[in-house]
Amino acid sequence: MITLVTGATGFLGSHVARQLVTAGDSVRVLVRRTSNLQALDGLAAERCEGGLNDAASLKRAVAGVQHIFHVAADYRLWARNPDEIYETNVQGTRRLLEAAANAGVERFVYTSTVATIAVPQQGSKLPSEETRANLDQMIGHYKRSKFLAELEAVKAAESGVPVIIVNPTAPVGPADWKPTPTGRIIVDFLNGKMPAYVDTGLNLAPVEDVAAGHLLAAHKGRIGERYILGARNMTLKQILEALAQTTGRPAPRVRLPHAVALAAGYANELLSRLSGREPGIPVEGVKMSRHKMFVESGKAERELGYEPGSVEAALARAVCWYRDHGYIGRGPRVKPLSHAQAA
Questions:
Q1: What angle do CA 340, 175, 23 make, to 5 degrees?
Q2: pLDDT value, residue 200
Q3: Which of 17, 164, 183, 292 is most enclosed, with most CB atoms within 10 A?
């Protein structure tokens, strides 16, 4: 079976591609000419040059394919030109869905995000796949673009394209080359750049298990359904304390008021617009942090057989990988990890 993976040069997509190869699929990956191919080192996969903005390249990429895993996304919480985010996430998804429909693929797994799930309401139960949000609830261009892209996937499923939607939470683990915004929290902690924290929370999941959830969705998921792929709800304070336990570095004790963090974010973005550099404190990220993005992923466990492992072990694997790949600058050394911690 030939399987196409978009986003295989990224964090989650590279894990999906590698697990597909291990499972025996003939994997084809869509890569841009300018892509950093580090994540594909040693991967036995056919490389198809093209992009989500190039319909002709998508037609070539889907030729003869049975399954598609559309993991690619423009995952930025700040962009000088926000139209770029919509072009990739919304228009690019629509083009690929059209190409898949014309090619008659058997399964199309679309990687959405937990960000499209409605945020928890005080006193209500945890949000799930049945908790519907609207566009006005989406904070920032990334969340809005992914919400609109998910609607494209739903419409395609309703028109007969065999689409299954997965909504990963915040994957953590090795091979986060960029790194992602969640990975940046870990890297900043490792480099002593987190003197304080805000009162927020998110659901973390081992990246390997989230990737495995994609494969399960292709084989067991119901067309048109969406499945949250998460593991453990943790406050940012708990995440930093888990990293402290793993590394021997002290966790920050000062809680920063959201108003102060937001002011710092606006100042940081102003400097970014002048310099062209991505801000270290994106305003969208600070606004999102007002809500604890806690969810439950029981549907994926019941219907797909999804079984996420230890988040603490995934954080330990991430720490090992960042340390071994030069992401930690000068300063106190990270303590050696035991086999049990990184298992």
A1: 85
A2: 87
A3: 17
